[in-house]
Structure prediction request, 144 residues.
Amino acid sequence: MTTNNRVIPWGLLLSAWLLAAVSSLSAIYIGEVLGQAPCVLCWFQRAFMFPLAVILAVACYYSDFNVWRYAMPLSVIGSLFALAHSLLYVGLIPQPIQPCTATGPSCSGDGMTIFGGLPLPFLSLAIFVAIIILLLLIRRRVHT
Prediction:
């Protein structure tokens, strides 16, 4: 990799966009092609991931390395929903506030895992955290 200060942040920005884009497309695939309706917490996570894909794509196009300023709040709030969903999945949040009803989709079913048993809420949390880390690295590289 070159020592050009613009190359490294651009690669980080592209990586953040790819994570958001693949996550968004995967969520659409799971919902529309596989027919798995999302629960309430999944909807909230999508509400924060989908705009990230668009914002980061525009930032890549314009090489806007200050994107962290408006992408970070979306990432942090989305990660909080993913964290709550993950805690619900493992049973650390009491059952009464569980968003999945008896007639709706279940977050604890086999259909909510990927890659041989990784629960989707954990994957969502990992993606949001990875995007946050990439945005922090972009901020650090640009402002040094």
Summary: The first strand starts at residue 113 and ends at 114. The chain has four helices and two strands. The mean pLDDT is 84.
